[in-house]
What we know:
Two copies of one chain form a homodimer. Chain A has helices at 11-21, 74-83, 98-112, 126-137, 153-160, 176-183, 192-195, 210-218, 236-242, 275-295, 317-323; strands at 2-7, 26-33, 49-51, 64-67, 88-90, 115-117, 141-147, 150-151, 165-174, 196-204, 228-233, 248-257, 263-272, 300-302. By secondary structure, chain A is an alpha/beta fold. In chain A, strands 3-2-1-4-5-6-14 form a seven-stranded parallel sheet, with helices on both faces. In chain A, strands 8-9-10-11 form a four-stranded mixed sheet. In chain A, strand 10, helix 8 and strand 11 form a beta-alpha-beta unit.
Amino acid sequence: xxxxxxxxxxxxxxxxxxxxxxxxxxxxxxxxxxxxxxxxxxxxxxxxxxxxxxxxxxxxxxxxxxxxxxxxxxxxxxxxxxxxxxxxxxxxxxxxxxxxxxxxxxxxxxxxxxxxxxxxxxxxxxxxxxxxxxxxxxxxxxxxxxxxxxxxxxxxxxxxxxxxxxxxxxxxxxxxxxxxxxxxxxxxxxxxxxxxxxxxxxxxxxxxxxxxxxxxxxxxxxxxxxxxxxxxxxxxxxxxxxxxxxxxxxxxxxxxxxxxxxxxxxxxxxxxxxxxxxxxxxxxxxxxxxxxxxxxxxxxxxxxxxxxxxxxxxxxxxxxxxxxx
Amino acid sequence: xxxxxxxxxxxxxxxxxxxxxxxxxxxxxxxxxxxxxxxxxxxxxxxxxxxxxxxxxxxxxxxxxxxxxxxxxxxxxxxxxxxxxxxxxxxxxxxxxxxxxxxxxxxxxxxxxxxxxxxxxxxxxxxxxxxxxxxxxxxxxxxxxxxxxxxxxxxxxxxxxxxxxxxxxxxxxxxxxxxxxxxxxxxxxxxxxxxxxxxxxxxxxxxxxxxxxxxxxxxxxxxxxxxxxxxxxxxxxxxxxxxxxxxxxxxxxxxxxxxxxxxxxxxxxxxxxxxxxxxxxxxxxxxxxxxxxxxxxxxxxxxxxxxxxxxxxxxxxxxxxxxxx
Lengths: 325, 325
């Protein structure tokens, strides 16, 4: 049994708790929290919720610690801290800062003789794998990644920070015409606006100015200004009823040609009823791999690129060759 | 530079020759043939065509030998033979016999201290990888593989063996209704007939009985009897004009649910203008990985499941993390 600890119990931590149940060779040992443990109610019977400080001595009986925190401020601190003490997995997803995060975690993991995996999930994660495989198989071609239809938590948060907004959800939606153009093999150059639209569902506070809120949303730099954005105002009841989930997904495509000039197309897509639940499931599969690498005596920081696929599976090589190859 | 040798110069061997050109860190050193080398005209200037017997001493200056032979009779003999002498890659694709082939090649490769990769390509190969990844991420779900639209060489050959048939091509075509049912997430149980149809383009010999040929095709056990099969009779000119290519492709889908019951869908698809050219491209990328594993001192037989994705890329880890993760 691979013994899993979870640090952090938001959507992602809870997703990991559930994902462990689908893997008979894995066992949830404890949930660690920086909140008051008495305030955190988990759903797995017999598993303790402990203060995060219990991890500090490096003596908790876990094989892998899955760090379920945010990329902005949590993971840059937490992952290097705990990579000295435990084998760890995180879902750090600020693409531009991955090289720095990797270096910090690699140094820590080597110091502690532990194995760490960063930037695991679906993007970065499974989408990255598909970009890599497709680039190796079609060295001459063009890459496209589309996200959605799905909830962008960062964009939803940005809307909620506007004065007069009580609540909001934002969907990122790929533009069908752009997807069609890519699939046609024409290798189009697409602007930000041509690839995705943004659909906002906004609950106003009493007396707020809808026109002013809409203007602030659609003109917000980085988040919305470069997109065609649709803003819908609804009641809190409607938002809770119709937009409570966290679906997401997307498409990774590569189109290219062989050296003989023959066209080829590779497409990968995910349609996820719950972004955090699926991300958690990926984290758990990679936790199995990390436990195995650690048992082999490896150490240092890894990414999904460094993990042979067989390490993810509960079955042995002979089974995989007979049934999945 | 990774020095590549090719054994066999049919569609696949020629595809490898072309694919090497798209990889600046790889070099084609020689093509080996069991035919008279003087009868084999390759397209790369300055590369010799040599008799296969030149390989027998194990002294050819190559890092990886790509064995471009058929799975029925060639590879079961050739791959174990040469895995004792060279690092080798093959595309053995008789799924049911993979475990036996693996054992034979593994024994040979260990004997010679070499690394071998078997069953590389897209199915087995990239499709297998996608089945494995999807099963690890969605442990509770159902797998579906569809092939086509594409030319099945085995089925085309079977038609050509019928008396009165001068030439033929057979397309395997996924049934759209079946694909749609799978994509809906209903986890349908599909019969052979419900998943694929078979479309045949047949050139008759002078005086042949079309009705008798058609009956023999559609009733042929294993190949056609379990499918809805359409037979079209055309002239040799039309066949050569409209059906000269070897396109193929297909779909790997897994639908399932999280432990919380939330639906998820993973889909991978390939649309290949040329089956042998794409397969070759996969073989060449994996040849790079095998050369690296050999340089690390590994030996024995591997499959795509055993190869960390980073080994396939010409770029280093820092580049991959910065640009593809």
